Each structure stands twice: as structure tokens, then as C-alpha cells.
């Protein structure tokens, strides 16, 4: 699967009425491919998936796969606490030509590991494309460990993990104990710190907008120029610091809108970005390029 390097967790552009802006979505996809992204992660938390109608989630996948047209890999997040919905989204993603599917573990009811494994098994059984586990304990409330993943793998065709946690010790354990599992790191602000563990790629919100910066970080690291890689990461993190004062996704949308791709605000109940937070972002914007 052609899915590696810097991979945006695609934001969902909205218009003034919070309806999906498909024109901006298509433009964003093309701009990001031109900038050198190594794939797209569609309808994830950054894409506000849990605030979308079923039809919208599907239409976004249809538009993105059509626009990408095989130029890079597309993985669709199909997560839903309702496994029947997750299976439906997965089948639909495959029918659109997606290269893989991904999901957060089922949440809210505090499911046990065998239940989580069955959830992934049901998705995997429904499609031929491989699965990427989405581990994001800060939002899902479920922290999957190196010991948990083989249990899930007994039930599902898991090729990788999107790992959005600051716990790099656990990530190293995953690498050591499951060497054939592809690692996609998910915290943009620690990309450089996670790289030496051996990543296939990184999937994150700010790769929608600080794309070139993060590709440069990866290139510097691969050339052995760690100092330069961390210097660039520090610049990116100055922007991320300002973004993390609000919602990162709102900051990404604001920056893209300023760059000529109108993305609107996040969907309610998220509040729009305050003027103060916009000004704080404006002040550090030159460091984003
Ligand atoms: O998975 C994103 N995580 C969340 C990706 O949305 C919670 C990241 O890209 C973060 O937005 C970013 C800031 O913490 O690293």
C-alpha cells in the first residue's frame, strides 16, 4: 500500500452553514498531493467524523477517493460504537477504492479486550483491505498496549497502528514485540522524537497545513541531520503551542482559510475560534512554512 511519510488526517471544510464544502475539499486534496503527502487519512477525529451524518461520511470518502485517483494511498476511518455502522462504512470505503480502513476501539461502554478484538474482527471480515488500529487514549478512553495488539490480530487483518499517545516507551515496546506492524505516529508535536523508533509514517491534523515543514523534518532526519530536524520541529511546535491553546482542528481550518482554501469553523457544539486565539496564531504564522 502506498501509504507512508507525512499523511494528513484530512480536515472537513465547512461553509458558513456548517455544510461540507466539497469544492474546498477537492482543492485541499490536490494542494496536499502537490506538496508531497504520502497518503490521506479520511473521516478521522480531525475530520470531525462523529459530528457527521452517515451520508456525509460516505460522500466525503467518495469525493476524496475520486480526487486522489490512486496517486497516493487512502485509508478511511470507519469507527463507530455501533459495529454494524462501522462494517457498513468499511464496505463502502472498499467499494470506493480505499486502500485500507481504520478505527478507534469501540468506546463509552468500557468494552473488554475480547470485545474490542471482536469489533475489529467484524470490520476486517467485511472487507479485503487491511486495517489500521487507531489508538488515541486521550479521546477514546481506551489505551491499547503491545500485549493487546496480538489479541486483536488473532481476529483481524491488522497491518498497522495509528498511535496518538505521548507514551513512546509503549511505542518502542510495540515495535520490539510486533516488528512487522507498521507504525504511524499521531502526535505532530513529537514527530521528531518518535522518528528514531522506526515509523512508516505520521498521521496528523497539522499536516493539512504545515505539510512542507514536516516533510523537511523527515528529510533532515533521514539524511542524519538530527539537529536540523529538531530545529524545524521547534519551529513547528511554536505554531502548535498556539494551536493547542484552542482546538488544533479549528487552528488548522483558520490557517487553511487564510491560505486561500475556505474551511469555515468546526461543527457545533464546538465553538468558533476566538479572535484572541486567531491573533495568537497570526503572530507565529511565519514559522509554519
Ligand atoms: O491524531 C491528532 N490528534 C488529535 C492526530 O486530533 C487528538 C494530532 O494531529 C493532534 O491534533 C496534534 C496536536 O496534539 O498532535
Description:
The protein is an alpha/beta fold and 289 residues long. The protein has a single domain, classed as TIM Barrel. The chain is built from 12 helices and 8 strands. The protein has helices at 22-35, 54-68, 83-95, 113-126, 137-140, 148-153, 168-177, 191-194, 211-222, 226-244, 248-258, 275-284; strands at 5-8, 40-42, 74-77, 100-103, 131-135, 158-163, 182-185, 201-204. It has an 8-stranded parallel sheet with strand order 1-8-7-6-5-4-3-2. Helix 3 links the parallel strand 3 and strand 4. Helix 3 (83-95) packs parallel to helix 4 (113-126), helix 10 (226-244) crosses helix 11 and helix 10 runs antiparallel to helix 12. The protein is globular and about 50 Å long. The chain starts with a strand and ends in a 5-residue tail after the last helix. 48% of the residues are buried. The model has no long low-confidence stretch (mean pLDDT 97). Residues 9, 45-46, 136, 139, 164, 186-189, 204-206, 248 line the site of 2-(acetylamino)-2-deoxy-D-mannose (MN9). 2-(acetylamino)-2-deoxy-D-mannose (MN9) binds at residues 9, 45-46, 136, 139, 164, 186-189, 204-206, 248.
Amino acid at each position: 500500500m502506498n501509504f507512508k511519510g507525512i499523511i494528513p488526517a484530512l480536515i472537513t471544510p465547512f461553509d458558513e452553514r456548517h455544510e461540507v464544502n466539497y469544492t474546498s475539499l477537492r482543492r485541499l486534496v490536490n494542494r496536499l498531493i502537490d506538496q508531497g503527502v504520502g497518503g490521506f487519512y479520511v473521516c478521522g477525529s480531525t475530520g470531525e467524523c462523529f459530528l457527521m451524518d452517515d451520508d456525509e461520511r460516505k460522500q466525503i470518502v467518495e469525493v476524496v477517493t475520486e480526487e486522489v485517483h490512486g496517486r497516493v494511498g487512502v485509508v478511511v476511518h470507519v469507527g463507530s460504537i455501533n459495529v454494524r455502522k462501522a462494517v457498513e462504512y468499511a464496505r463502502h470505503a472498499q467499494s470506493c477504492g480505499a486502500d485500507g480502513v481504520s478505527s478507534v476501539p469501540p468506546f463509552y461502554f468500557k468494552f473488554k479486550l475480547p470485545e474490542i478484538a471482536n469489533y475489529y474482527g467484524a470490520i476486517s471480515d467485511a472487507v479485503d483491505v487491511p486495517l489500521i488500529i487507531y489508538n488515541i487514549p486521550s479521546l477514546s478512553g481506551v489505551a491499547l498496549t503491545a500485549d493487546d495488539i496480538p489479541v486483536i490480530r488473532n481476529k483481524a487483518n491488522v497491518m498497522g497502528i495509528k498511535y496518538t499517545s505521548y507514551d513512546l516507551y509503549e511505542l518502542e515496546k510495540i515495535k520490539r514485540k510486533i516488528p512487522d506492524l507498521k507504525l504511524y505516529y499521531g502526535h505532530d508535536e513529537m514527530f521528531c522524537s518518535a522518528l528514531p523508533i522506526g515509523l512508516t509514517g505520521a498521521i496528523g491534523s497539522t499536516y493539512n497545513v504545515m505539510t512542507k515543514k514536516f516533510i523537511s523534518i523527515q528529510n533532515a532526519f533521514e539524511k542524519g541531520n538530527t539537529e536540523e530536524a529538531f530545529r524545524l520541529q521547534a519551529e513547528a511546535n511554536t505554531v502548535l503551542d498556539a494551536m493547542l491553546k484552542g482546538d488544533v482542528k479549528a487552528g488548522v481550518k483558520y490557517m487553511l482559510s487564510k491560505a486561500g482554501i475556505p474551511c469555515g469553523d468546526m461543527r457545533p457544539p464546538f465553538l468558533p475560534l476566538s479572535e484572541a486565539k486567531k491573533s495568537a496564531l497570526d503572530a507565529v504564522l511565519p514559522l509554519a512554512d
